[in-house]
Amino acid sequence: MSAMLKITLPDGNVREVAPGTTPADIAAAIGPGLAKAAIAARVDGELRDINRPLEQDATLALVTAKDEADALELARHDFAHVLAEAVQALFPGTQITFGPSTDDGFYYDFAPNPERGPFTDEDLPAIEAKMREIIAANKPLRREVIARDTLIAQWQAAGETFKAQWAAELPQGEELTVYHSGAPDSADSWYDMCRGPHLASTGRLDPSAFKLTRVSGAYWRGDQNNAMLSRIYGTGWLNKKQLAEHLTRLEEAAKRDHRKLGAEMDLFHLQQEAHGSVFWHPKGYLIWRQLEAYMRRAIDDAGYREVKTPQVMDARQWETSGHWGKYRENMFVIPDEVPNVDDEGPLVSDDADWMALKPMNCPAHVLIFRQGIKSYRDLPMRLYENGCCHRNEPHGALHGLMRVRQFTQDDAHIFCREDQIVEEVRAFCALADRIYKDFGFTYSIKLALRPEKRFGSEEMWDKAENELRAAVAAAGLNTPEFGWEELPGEGAFYAPKLEWHLTDAIGRTWQVGTIQSDRVLPERLDASYVGEDGERHRPVMLHRAIFGSYERFIGILIEHYAGRFPAWLAPVQAVVATIVSDADEYAGDVLAKLRAAGIRAEADLRNEKINYKVREHSLAKVPNLLVVGRREAEEGKVALRVLGSERQSFLSLDEAISRLANEARAPDML
Question: What cofactor requirement does the entry state (predicted)?
Fold first, then answer.
């Protein structure tokens, strides 16, 4: 008889079971309720199928729908497989490739039968119906380990050239697994290559908790030199209620789309003559200027000194810093020579030295720090720049203001001594907290830890990570209230980082602010200061930003506020609208006094009905409308309509101006 396995449960209880026992067996032994609720298991921390046999002593935690993150991952993975099975059942000759889960659903890439042609959105209802049929059949999902050569031969025999290629390229020695849907020998059996895990059967999915959303093109493995595939997207949840809430959020998000509102409000535009770079219109750039002024006040108060550095730097500088090897494919490079002006010959010679538009500001700030001898008394030195950067993002990755090629960072680097790190990071945490709250955001904070490929020693990374932990603890932010979490492997190649994830008005999260504790770049670029002992020492370099980039932050604000900016940010804070032309002169007086009080105001004297004017300025998201007619002119009053309110207030002009002037003040100036 084989030795019994010792399985340790979360409460510390140890159960002895025979080899081959499954987590489902243990759940059933504990009680029928848990047997019904358990959908998967964590074995020594690894998420596994509920019916996968246990092979050795292990810790075991049973997963139920209450473990929402794991449950959603499993459900979405299963929906992707059911989607692939449904497509192949409906459209014979379609090849499958792969289909992962996503943050809110799943997708699968297909190579349609050439005679049939690419899939379209019109195909989605039939595919959804077939998926529900497969779910209703409650087909068991069974894992099988299979030999590499056997699997490749099976894929080739089935005409699945993409799967055969993928299987052949997986690392030698890696265990290959497939998942069967249905009994292996049944007529409707289907399988796919997958690491898993999966639910026990298709019937564990809620057939009313998913929706296919759209079809797009996608290159095999993301390479435009490869075959074009059809990608079918879907959203998947645990139940119908979650799906309905998500679809409502999507509908609300569409209304708030910054690209749509940016055009309606005349804030900015983008066009192909400058891919990924923003054309700011006067009203949009006014928002930018308000943010820039706000941030300058904040950094001035916090002891930063603003600098300005070159856009173009020699490629050798980027090689020394390490960015050339890591970011070169995303850098715009420029030959350092006069181009050939003749019709004959190459534009640039083979002898040209190379320069690059800066993709980040860090090395330039080190060069400023290195000018002159620095003493330990000079530290911390906080250098700030509204730094314009360029990154050569692929055309297909560009997205409005959220992902661009030219962007401006509210970037700063703090050069400090070892003993100053925790206090500097704590102070930054407090500054970021105040700023995010001024814009109405809540946030969570995460610590991104060392990646697999990195510069620096293990000792250096240990110190840097622990310093950030200590600073967050000192700021009181390492609590569940602030969503404190550590993210293994997600740090930069030169430093761990704290990340601020903002939650907007409709519950979406945006990763925005960061601070990184870097000992690598000062070493590579030979930054030093003279210590109290008279010897040279390396400063630690804290990379930090709060907005992240002005472009993306403005895009987030447009969607967060749905275009209804608070008065201090609104491009036009008030419009004076006349009811009759007899009030034009008085409207001019009102406008002059508003502007004298520092309020950004305009007048609408058009010969239009007042209801038309009210509707038009409401659509333009003007926060305050001052309506004036004969009566208001005679009495020196205005009828004040606040955006979003059905009521209007009759106020004296002085009272209205006092109220609007107070509302128009930035939150840090109240």
Answer: Zn(2+)
